[in-house]
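Re: duplicated header lines in exported structure tokens

Our pipeline writes sequence and tokens for each protein into one text file. With two proteins the header for the second block appears twice in some exports. Here is an export where it did not happen, for reference. First protein block:
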Amino acid sequence: MKLILLFCASLWLCSTFSNSQRSFHNRTSNFQVGVILDLKSVVGSMGLSCMSIALSDFYSIHSNYSTRLSLHVRDSQEQAIEAAAAGLNLLKDVKVDAILGPQKSAQANFLMDLGDRAQVPIISFSATSPSLHTRTPYFVQAAQGDDTQVGAIAAIVKAFQWSRVVMIFEDSEYGSGIVPYLSNAFQDVNAHISYKSVFPVSASDEFILKELYKMMTLQTRVFVVHMSHTLGARLFLKAKDIGMMEKGYAWIITSGLVDLAYLMDSDVAEAMQGVLGVKPLIPKSEQLRSFSSRLKKKSLEKSPGIGRADLSIFGLWAYDTLWALAMAAERVGLKEPPKTLENSTVNLNVSDLFNFGNSEVGPKLLKAISETKFEGLSGKFRLIDGKMGSSSYQIINMVGNGQKEVGIWNPSLGIRRELNWNTTTHDTSSRENMRSIIWPGDSTVVPKGWEVPMSGKKLRIGVPVKAGFTDFVRVAKDTQVNARIISGFYIDVFKSVMEALPYSVPYELLPFENPDGSSAGTYNDLIYQVFLQNYDAAIGDITITANRSKYVDFTLPFAEGGVISIVPITYEDANDIWAFLKPLKKELWLTSIAFFFLTGLAVWILEHRVSSAFRGPPSQHVGMIFYFPFSTLVFAHRERIVNNLARLVVVVWMFVILILNSTYTASLSSRFTVQRLQPAITDVSELIKNRDFVGCQEGSFIVDFLRKKGFDDSRIRTYTSPYDCDEALSRGSKSGGISAFYDVIPYSKLFLSKHCDKYMTVGPTYRTDGFAFVFPKGSPLVADVSRAVIELTENGKIMEMEQHWLRNEQTCAGPDDNMNSITISLQSFKGLFAITGGVTAVSLLIFIASYLYKYRDFHRRVSNSRITIWSKVVAICRHFDQRDLSSGQPQDKLPESGISPNTSSENSVQPPNLPRNHSNSNEIVSSAPEELHDATTATIHSSNLEDMSAVKHSGVILPSA
């Protein structure tokens, strides 16, 4: 009996264990997922419907998965507090493993901190503020952030060459999050944000109208709108009512407005005609068409609008997000079921509000979803640092009741009509790459981006008031009508430029003057008034400088720049005792004298050993060195040149002398026959050194220019008229005037055309930019006015106006410009001196090399001897001083006086075997080193014998002893 009972117990235990094992392997693990949405909103109801369809589609395809998602839906009622309360309920009571939502960026700011504390992923498919995903790793932005679309918006602005934009955004986390990214993107394309208009989320109609009227007074006509679709609809209705949706305006809306534009009423759609927008590019697929069809058939009473228009990108992101979460849950695998499941209303204990533990599954689920990649309905699902990766954007034109695609923007390819990945061109942003666009007011003309304000205000153009040089800018008073008449060359240039613009710009010219008619300040003061926006522009003779460009923008210059100095003319005195030196400059005189000496020295070295004319006592040598080259000036040299190298040097030198002599003679003759003019001052350093006074126009930038050159303020005088300048220059610094007058080139030319017989320009032209028109920083007029200036310059109209204003003056009958003093410089003779110097140097090198080679044995014995260096030099010099009779040249005849031309003791000719001759030879030998006595004595004896032989054969009668 006991055995039977034991057997039955064993069978029961085995059966129980087998059932337990089968139940463990067949069970599914449920992941609790909270959903927090604004269920009464279009995005919220649509997102919930899309997630419901996604849940059904996913597990119908993956029925074998061991995990399931259980959704716990909470309504945040469009309030951040309600969203936070719902999150607390899901985390504390339901103990969810993840939360989908919240819907808005402001709600996500509250909820993400709770998820971070509980280590539960908060996954939002609709909160697009760029600043959210950086706060905590447990917040996943399963939607493209607003910062990914700023490149597309900036590319549109660049394509149409708009330089200024107005930003309109709502005062919320969603609205302000995109602002810094848009600012940087506009800066990259050289576009300036002229105004930022911030709208409260609950802005009244009065506030909207007030802001729109304020924007109408601006010149900018390009508006970028980033706000919710409800506030955006009200904005465009009011903009159409006051005429801001007409021709000339350009509106760009962000993806949030574009995506939900189909939900707006027909009157809002009509008001938005011609608006451009961007939205993420959704790749077309069969799955997308099937999903759209099924969603339209689904009856969603709380989501009006679904089924009568295109599907929202937020619905696609909701669908893909749930698929990604389901795939991540399967990767995490089985988990223990939650201890409690609570789907009832929220029941929170305030004293124990945040008392919930950390999720064990949350970190694993976060890692799994971060690594999940697949092709979803909205495109490739891929998270990068907790944020959806960026993709291409469609450029949409609001036309009729729908949206027309006019281009596609890609971060690396720029704007294209079609997205072609095989293209080799990168970052192209051009209007030619887009299809035709219908602009506001049914216009096909591209708005230029700015207009003169519609309030009727004219541009206030400041004009400097000056007493002198009225040919350029003239402000005169008409006593009959008691008004100011503004005219002049530069005024006509400005009027012609404004007429050349492709549009009309009303303006009025206002003199920059005091009530009494005098000038209200310097040119810098006028420019500063433009900076303060008391004037819309300034025109006249305003020079572009680096300091001024810090405050205003300049157009391209319409007149040449540069500063030159004007000084009085003086005439050379032909009776000056040093007039004969003036044909050549000092450096040419010194160089010529140096070459005279060097040439004489070279000829002496070449002729000394072979020609008796170049021998004698030391005084005769020095005289010959200086005398011979100077005698060639008048070809008075009679010395016979024996050495061929010396002949070559003399021939080249004679050629140089011929040219130098003829040039000097011509210049000196011209100076004595024609009166020459010259500047009184030739250099700035001379003015500063002499502490002379200098002058310039009153109010000009040249005052600062002269300070930088080193002039003291006490030495700078300003003048208002050409007459004052003329009088000051005539008096000079010593008589209360000035020594030089500095001015820009146009004024200097005009002044000299009337006083060319008295003054002249000297020194270099100091480089400065020319005259240009002045506009405030970032003014859109600068580019168009600059283009008009180029056009008028190229077609010659500015030249015609210059002929009319400045060439009517009578021609000044002043001195001929060719009568200026011309002093010949060294530059004109560098080539000649290089030739004669080169020939002379080569000849000397050849001669010295020949001499060293011919007497190499002697020089070797001298160099190897153990004597001092000075003794070696003396021995070589005495050897060189001896006459070379082996050259084959006959000895010159004696002069009629009977005195031998060779009077040196060692070369005096004596009969052989005379004691006197031996004594002379012994003297020479005794002066040499002992080691060289024998060799030197033998050389001297041999030399004397050769001299005697040469004398005998030449028939010269020797004097008696």
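Second protein block, exported in the same file:
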Amino acid sequence: MDVDLLRPGMIPIAPNTKLWFEFLIEPSLLEEHLNKDHPDPSAAELLIKFLYSSMERPKDLPLIDIDDLMDNSRIDKKIEYRKRKKYECLKMLAMKIVSFWEWDLNILETRVPISLQIIFVQDLLELVSCGLNLIDFETHNSIENLSALKDEQVFAVALFHRWTLTVIINYTLSKKSSFSLGPIQDGNEDVLLKLEMQSEHSEQMLLRLLDLKRSSYTIPTINTFDPPDELRPLNCYWFKGLTVSSAEFRSQIMYDYAKYKFFKAQYEEAGIYFNMCKELNMNLTPSSFHKIKLEELNGFCAACSSKITENSSLLMQFLYSTQTNHNEILRILEIDNQIMEIPMFLRDSLELDLASMLSLGKFTASRDMLLHIHTLNAIRRASVTSGEIVLLPPEDYVTKIKFNLRGPEIFLKDLKLCMKIKDKKFRKNIKMFVCNVLLKCPKNLVKDILKDGHEEIHELFGDEDIHQLLTLPEDIPTVNIDMSKRLNRLKITQINNVNVQKLLLKNKISIEYDPSNLRNLLQQLHKMDMDPLFSILDINYEWQVPLPLQSLLIGLPNGLFKYLVIILIAKSKEMIKLNDFERAKLLLRESETETKINNSIMYSKIRQLISWEGLYTEMLQFQHEFKNFAIGDLVERCKQCLEFVQSDNLIPRQEIAEQCILTLLNVGEWEYLTKRHYNCFKLPLAIAYTCLDVNKFKGTKKSAKEVWDLILPVFDYGYSATNKRPLDGDPQCTQNRVLSQSDMMHVFLSLRDQNAIQIVLSLLAKIQNFLRDESAMELIMPFLNIWPVIPNGMNIPLRNITEVLGIVLTESLKYHPNHIILLKLKGDLQYVMGHYSSAMKWYLEAIVIVSDYFARPVLKPMIEDYVYKRMMKCCMQMQNFTQAAILCLFQEEIDYATAYKCASETNSCDALDEYYDYIWDINLLEFLIYWHTKLNHQEHRQKLLKTIGALELNANNNEEIKREAANIRKLKFLRALSQQYVHP
């Protein structure tokens, strides 16, 4: 049950909660209640209740509506019964609350409905009238001598007209949601219209009030209003009010008047009064009545000003300069480098915009201006850089210095300007910035910058530091260091030339891929490096050499052969990661050639292992470039490699052997694989056996138990560790245990043969269908009938199966993008997941392939009725009901019930009558004509009559003409759908 704390008789109520009528009985409690930290009910709730209750209709008087509130001809009727003591007391309590808010109009307008605001301001005008008809606000301008009015009357008149203008602004800018209170409806739009009609009178009245010559004004406070009781009448003690200066009173009027002019886009006049208000506030000691925010006032003044001076904020000067031909922009940026007021993103935008305009010829400036801006921005950016930075700065800035004849001069000139700042942190960051630039610049440019006479450089670096910077070599690697901790000991020690040369040689080896150049570099390094503990792999810790090769090569003595072969193999692995297989094979061939210098057993083993690495690279290339790769003798080499797997001598790596099996599986060598038995590669062999069986029995025999038994435990989370024993009793082979999901995914994602892919996808689809157990949401695939049922007690999460199926399907479509079955399965998967727009995309892509992009009719055996049915349901879910109605016609047996239901939907989100030209079924056309006639939709009806009158749709035509007309419209409709879903 809803509890209204302002209504008596509702429960439960907190012990400290006051009921509104308690303040009516004892008005002195109100001030005590309002001064609480969190009064319950709040001041706004009480005010609304007081005002609403003061408008309650006695049984013997008529109802008051919203029109009465703004119609002066009905004022007498309105106040007829509100002079009774109860209502007078409620009005006085309302006055106390607003005076407690210190007459803040923003609080009043944001917390009280506008209809009750009108009641309040009219009550205030009535309260101060004293014989004058102030409640009739249209007669305010007829008052000839405003100076004859009392302070409370001037205050009430000013408050009313200020409220009129501010309420127009606030309720126009923020459409506050209206709410009703009893019989009084908050009709904001009607009230605003009437207020705007009298806004000119309010403007004139405020201007007249500004001309009053008084030294001070008295503003009512909470103690001013004394509610009546049984013994005494209503009374107001105006002398108990707050005395404010004339400047404070006038500035508040100016501010509200100027805001209204600003709202009306009369910026020149608004600026005059904003500036006058600003001048009054300069020497003003504001009281609680003063509600002007100086920051907001300054913003208004700046917005209205058409002139920017040096006294304006730097940000304003910057924005003005960017809009007026970039005058004095360098001066502004120089000052900002010291005070840092302009946001960095604005400075970066300036740099990019100016470079663009100069390149396009839209702006002309001195050739050095852009470099000045680059330098000033770089200094500003460096001044706020954190301690952890990259040693070398981006090359683009140094490049700009190099290609400008006055680059060093401009760099030093702008640097000199920022050296006036004595902040230690700032100078440390600048020192870091200069060091970065000098380390990146060429030697001759460094000498130009560091030559004698540049005091700003000597302020940052001592003579010894400058000498060391001049002697640094040009090729210094880019490394991440904490410069803030190292700058304090920047003294650059003498560098050993031999170590530098070694470092440079190692760096060149890291980036060199030409075998002959690598040989020369290694020869030089071998001559210089006599350390017996040196390992060539230490040059780059990312280099990898297969473990069997590494164990053989490491045993060889250090020398050119060992270094060269290790680097060639490591770099080939690097190229494989980049899918640059040709260069990887070239490097391996070179390394294999190197081993031919010696015919010993050790070198023969190394050569054989390198040969298998070359085969492995070629198999990966075949897998990556499927359909574009010339197989050649790859199959025979795979078979030869597999002959060594179970030998007692040298054997290939497990990854190579498994890749051989996968390659043979992908080229259709299933019979060869089923005649071999490799304990460690059961999954690809089981897939090969299933492919062979499916092709032999055409999918009519349930013969896929091997793959089923291998895959199910992978997804079974309830399969305990105690059950994970070897599948064939061989404890030596780790892959004989239950497969991990990563091993399974590696095999699945390596499949390229269409038959193998369909086998795997049908297995995953079968599991998903079983777990979902909804006939309307089944995935449709060939070979679903070959799989056994899932045994009881298995805990397989549906989400895991769906994710794996989606990943495998996406990878398969990369290599078979035109495979109809895969495209339809992708659509089915999106459909059951509720991604209806995506499902439409994949179904339509399948139709595009079948119809040769709508050049010929769609064949039924390729696109079955269930596809159209699911497309129809997708459209209905997306509220594209016209599309769904037409798709009903594509089925073998037309579903007229659904078609008529969809055609009669009035909230369809598709193109509606734009699709009527695609309809070929007379029954649907006649229903649509009937429906639009019933709804009196004449335009739709005329279009349908024109469509049904087409000659090719005549009922007397022969079947061939009807079939041709239907096919043409079907293809046009499908083409329109593809433009929406496939190629939006």
